[in-house]
Here is the input.
Amino acid sequence: MSEEQILKLVKEHFQEGGVREEDQRKVCEEYELTMDEDLRSKFEDWKKAEEEFARIQKGAMGTVIEED
Here is the structure.
C-alpha cells in the first residue's frame, strides 16, 4: 500500500466522523505501531516491576545486597 493510498484512507475516515479504534488497531498491527493507550499500560507495568526490583534488592530487613 502506497503512502498516497494510506493518506486517502485516513482522510476518508476523518470525513466520516473519526477513526474507529478497531481500524486504528488494525493499522497499528500491520505497520508495527503502538497505540498511546497501550504505551501507558506498559509504562505502569514497568513502574511496578521497577518498584518490586528495588524492594527485592534491599534484601532482608532493609539491607542492601551488593554484587561481588
User: Anything to note?
Assistant: The helical segments are 3-15, 21-30, 36-58. Residues 43 and 49 are 10 Å apart (CA to CA). The mean pLDDT is 77. The chain has one domain: 3-62.
